[in-house]
Amino acid sequence: MKLVSRFEAAHRSTAELNGLLREATLAFAAAPRSSQERRDALASIQNIESALAVRPPRL
After folding, report:
1. Cα distances (Å, whole numbers) of residue 42 to 28, 34, 38, 48
2. CB neighbours (10 Å) of residue 16?
3. Is this prediction's pTM over 0.85?
């Protein structure tokens, strides 16, 4: 999986971020331990969750 940067995450819609979060979570689970792919997936998850955390909740 390609790393999702904080900048990229900030410019995506909430729906897109939720989809990317799912992809990153699956990539993290499937990647071998200590691999660059796993580190990228984890960083992406953190960046996506940070971007979602600052958005107001939808009703």
Report:
1. 6, 11, 6, 10
2. 13
3. yes
